[in-house]
């Protein structure tokens, strides 16, 4: 029956993958009965490959976006980093302004209280400035922190 034909078709395909082509003494079933399961097998295999390829493409795109985003964000504060700022400055409009803040003696905080406290201070300051900008100027302004 059909399972036997399918088994013989798979055996034949597997043996054809070797370097030498061996002649097989397979029973000669009716042509219409033997071709249909083989075509179904091939069609299903191609469908599975297409599905796997599309899924891998989606995963690759998602990972690429995550990697690009991590390249432009500071891992401690979540703010955009120097790379993103440099990209933005290349396209800044003449009516836009840039304000910079410098934390003096920040290394003393790290030395006296440790890096964990210093990192938390940076996170807190980032959150404070983000919230203040969002309240005063709206979300687009808050997203422009670097």
From TrEMBL:
Coiled-coil regions listed: none
Superkingdom field: Bacteria
Pfam families: GGDEF
Domain GGDEF: 73-135
UniProt-recorded name of the protein: GGDEF domain-containing protein
Organism of this sequence: Vibrio alginolyticus
Lineage, opening ranks: Bacteria, Pseudomonadati, Pseudomonadota, Gammaproteobacteria, Vibrionales
